[in-house]
User: Which sequence fits this backbone?
């Protein structure tokens, strides 16, 4: 039976959740996130569901620390008091699987839990089999085939499109970043050294981009929320139908809570960047641009490394099953 950790500073919320999930899962509930962290050092959990606004720790702080203790546990936030910065942190730093708003719909919550646990199960099984394959075929893993990563960039703002393109294609130690992040994931020895190569295609129209995507596979899509014919969430939904394994980054200068919730629950973005290229007082100063480019490059590397490792594990797991 799957074990779920519930953390909320309101006992009535914990009681309601325990009633709804009783009999289906092994449940442990804590009012204190500090006590929950200690329990996480003692017992393995498959899923942790946390409130955001708590006296001792914010939900993002708690989930980040819990992720360091149990990185394989799926993570969700169930809250009615998350601010924009908090949800951005939940997406980009703690990598939550879902955000559920209070008061929650019982069916929606149960479906999200089933999906989170199923995704975790498949990912862990593929990782286990892939590691077994790597150990069995260690000598064959020394030589790796490097490929060109294809990135599609979509933004209806021509000036912003140019700035992002220049940021992505400026000289940078992408290869070093890519291999450093693989080492952080513990895969450098098995996978060898990778020469990171990439191309970037730009589109100002979402419809034109989708027509092109139907003919050309992409590893990563970087999409502005505001597009001429549709919003970025809709675009990414269409992209997922064509290339379900593509990594996705959404960019917005003024995100709201609804957009962020959709980004997590519908578009399943790898990162959401709150980026404004124009400082209305200093007119797009160099410091702002440099910080935006830094955030963008880091998000690109993290999204591609995570995607590549998931697909590599899936491929090796299939070979191990044969």
Assistant:
């Amino acid at each position: 039976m799957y074990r779920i950790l519930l953390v909320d500073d309101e006992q009535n919320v914990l009681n309601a959740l325990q009633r709804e999930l009783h009999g289906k899962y092994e449940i442990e509930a804590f009012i204190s996130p500090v006590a929950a962290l200690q329990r996480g050092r003692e017992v393995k959990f498959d899923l942790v569901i946390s409130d955001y606004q708590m006296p001792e720790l914010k939900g993002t702080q708690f989930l980040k620390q819990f992720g360091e203790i149990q990185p394989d546990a799926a993570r969700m936030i169930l809250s009615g008091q998350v601010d924009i910065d908090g949800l951005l942190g939940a997406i980009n730093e703690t990598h939550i699987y879902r955000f559920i708003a209070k008061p929650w719909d019982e069916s929606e919550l149960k479906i999200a839990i089933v999906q989170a646990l199923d995704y975790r199960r498949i990912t862990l099984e593929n990782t286990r089999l892939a590691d077994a394959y790597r150990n069995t075929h260690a000598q064959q893993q020394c030589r790796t085939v490097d490929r060109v990563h294809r990135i599609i960039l979509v933004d209806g703002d021509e000036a912003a499109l140019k700035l992002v393109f220049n940021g992505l294609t400026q000289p940078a130690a992408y290869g070093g970043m890519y291999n450093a992040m693989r080492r952080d994931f513990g895969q450098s020895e098995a996978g060898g050294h990778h020469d990171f190569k990439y191309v970037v295609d730009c589109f100002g129209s979402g419809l034109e981009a989708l027509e092109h995507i139907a003919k050309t596979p992409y590893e990563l899509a970087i999409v502005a929320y505001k597009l001429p014919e549709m919003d970025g969430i809709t675009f990414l939904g269409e992209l997922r139908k064509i290339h379900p394994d593509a990594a996705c980054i959404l960019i917005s200068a003024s995100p709201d809570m609804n957009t962020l919730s959709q980004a997590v629950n519908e578009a399943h973005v790898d990162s959401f960047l709150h980026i404004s290229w124009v400082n209305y007082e200093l007119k797009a100063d160099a410091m702002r641009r440099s910080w935006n480019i830094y955030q963008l490059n880091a998000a690109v590397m993290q999204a591609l490394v995570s995607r590549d490792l998931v697909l590599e594990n899936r491929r090796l797991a299939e070979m191990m099953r044969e």
